[in-house]
Amino acid sequence: MGTTQADLTRTAGKPIHCKAAVARKPGEPLVIEEVIVAPPKVHEVRLKIICTSLCHSDVTFWKLKDFPGCFPRILGHEAFGVVESVGEDVHDLKEGDSVVPIFLPDCAQCIDCTSKKSNNCSKFEFKVSPWMLRDGTSRFTTVDGETLYHFLSVSSFAEYTVVDIANVMKIDPCVPPNRACLFSCGVSTGVGAALKSAKVEPGSTVVIFGLGAIGLAVAEGARISGASRIIGVDINSDKFEIGKQFGVTDFVNSNSYGDKPISQVINEMTNGGGDYCFECVGMGKLVQEAYACCRKGWGKTIVLGVDKPGAELTFKSFDVLHLGKTLIGSLFGGLKPKSDIPLLVKRYLDKELQLDKFVTHEVSFQDINKAFDLHVEGKSLRCVVWMDK
């Protein structure tokens, strides 16, 4: 990877001048510019980013004009890197470790992090903050002293970044960097939602609203779990051929039925609804459609899509009481980062998890805006951005 221990030692404890792709205005191309990355403080590490991938959340907040969108900002949160230096009171990580940053804090100490029932850290609440986790400041400035905002506690669209130890974990160096970065968010979220949040059973019927990267990762998790029928719902019929690679058996184009509710179509296809229905788009009306085609008595609806701030859901009290369905949110697929991601890594190394198929494009850091174009045009599942290529 071109990084030696001597290289890391020379920069430890000092500010680093490096390149970053800065989002300066909503929806406008990122600007590659020189930035200064401060040394890590207590409970922090500084990472040399080897490669990063583009997630839909990066695009969402790149376009967002109102808070929690804010500019200038260094986006990016799916990445693979090497620990360049560590701050005080860092004991589980050392210089040279292969790591992936994680947007969801895992302090490994609080009541939630030590419980098998939750992945919502009670010590560090998850929020889309522009600052570092503990002290509410930034580690990024321009050469002119302008403060640059953080994103999801990671900010991987830079050659170096600083993250809290609650937001980073070691990963088996046997995993190639351009695959390891995918464990940071999207693929883990979708696969985890099927395996852990839903606990999809062999022989079950799964319905997935939205066959983007997360929806396809749900399909992959359902396939691994032995689901007998995986129904994909999308407005793009081309997604069916892609979905077949991840186990999708049936496809419904939601634009092809006029005024007929898609939930009715699914209920008729399945003789009563799916055992597990996943909403992977981030639209309230699709959550309600997923709930409506979830089998009464035991069906479970899992919400993965990120809707616009302030969006609300409405359900009839009668249906909630009488139909016996379950509706749950699944942040990061219900995974506990530091204990569950190693299990997904093992599935990949054992050739059980088809991680390779998610990477459809790879570009150099200088071409990072091409990754955004590919995503916006719907041509890419995951585009990996190499920092040194």
UniProtKB/TrEMBL annotation:
<dbReference type="GO" id="GO:0005829">
    <property type="term" value="C:cytosol"/>
</dbReference>
<dbReference type="GO" id="GO:0008270">
    <property type="term" value="F:zinc ion binding"/>
</dbReference>
<feature type="domain" description="Alcohol dehydrogenase-like N-terminal">
    <location>
        <begin position="43"/>
        <end position="172"/>
    </location>
</feature>
<dbReference type="Pfam" id="PF08240">
    <property type="entry name" value="ADH_N"/>
</dbReference>
<protein>
    <submittedName>
        <fullName>Alcohol dehydrogenase-like 7</fullName>
    </submittedName>
</protein>
<keyword id="KW-0862">Zinc</keyword>
<dbReference type="InterPro" id="IPR036291">
    <property type="entry name" value="NAD(P)-bd_dom_sf"/>
</dbReference>
<dbReference type="InterPro" id="IPR011032">
    <property type="entry name" value="GroES-like_sf"/>
</dbReference>
<dbReference type="GO" id="GO:0051903">
    <property type="term" value="F:S-(hydroxymethyl)glutathione dehydrogenase [NAD(P)+] activity"/>
</dbReference>
<comment type="subunit">
    <text>Homodimer.</text>
</comment>
<dbReference type="Pfam" id="PF00107">
    <property type="entry name" value="ADH_zinc_N"/>
</dbReference>
<keyword id="KW-0560">Oxidoreductase</keyword>
<dbReference type="GO" id="GO:0004022">
    <property type="term" value="F:alcohol dehydrogenase (NAD+) activity"/>
</dbReference>
<dbReference type="GO" id="GO:0046294">
    <property type="term" value="P:formaldehyde catabolic process"/>
</dbReference>
<keyword id="KW-0479">Metal-binding</keyword>
<dbReference type="InterPro" id="IPR013154">
    <property type="entry name" value="ADH-like_N"/>
</dbReference>
<dbReference type="InterPro" id="IPR013149">
    <property type="entry name" value="ADH-like_C"/>
</dbReference>
<feature type="domain" description="Alcohol dehydrogenase-like C-terminal">
    <location>
        <begin position="213"/>
        <end position="345"/>
    </location>
</feature>
<dbReference type="InterPro" id="IPR002328">
    <property type="entry name" value="ADH_Zn_CS"/>
</dbReference>
<keyword id="KW-0520">NAD</keyword>
<comment type="similarity">
    <text>Belongs to the zinc-containing alcohol dehydrogenase family. Class-III subfamily.</text>
</comment>
